[in-house]
């Protein structure tokens, strides 16, 4: 078992820029790992890809990485958002997808160390960012100590 790695998760909804970047700065996040399927939506406000890169560098001295392999497929996400798929089914399908993608082999521990998984959901309970951390803790030698910022 590797040594413990501090990792964070955050959603940008229900937060203004001051709160969002304040959380990241106080937590000393090194890299924001964007696990959204769509990272350029106009609905994202300050959390659009290019704006995020700038704000992270200027305000937090942090890097930005988009990791769509840690996002659900459009089909899974849309079915859940429309209410056609309950959370339990979404969770099972997403965890199976992580297994098919072998994310534990492609994600570098250095990226996760003081990294923060970004999604849109305000809280982690019904969000795939929590599932990514749980999956990696279960299917790799990593010992991820997670703190959800909200």
From TrEMBL:
This is DUF488 domain-containing protein. Pfam families: DUF488. PANTHER family: BLR5642 PROTEIN. It comes from the Bacteria.
């Amino acid at each position: 078992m590797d040594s413990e790695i501090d990792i964070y998760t955050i959603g940008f909804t229900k937060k203004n820029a001051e709160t969002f970047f304040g959380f990241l700065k106080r937590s000393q996040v090194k890299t924001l790992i964007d696990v959204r399927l769509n990272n350029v939506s106009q609905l994202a406000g300050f959390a659009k890809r290019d704006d995020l890169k700038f704000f992270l560098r200027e305000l937090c001295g942090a890097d930005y990485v988009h990791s769509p392999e840690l996002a659900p497929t459009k089909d899974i996400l849309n079915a859940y958002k429309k209410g056609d798929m309950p959370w339990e089914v979404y969770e099972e399908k997403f965890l199976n997808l992580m297994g098919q993608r072998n994310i534990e082999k492609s994600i570098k521990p250095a990226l996760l160390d003081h990294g923060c998984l970004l999604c849109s959901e305000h809280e982690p309970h019904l969000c795939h960012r929590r599932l990514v951390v749980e999956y990696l803790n279960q299917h790799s030698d990593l010992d991820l100590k997670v703190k959800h910022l909200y």
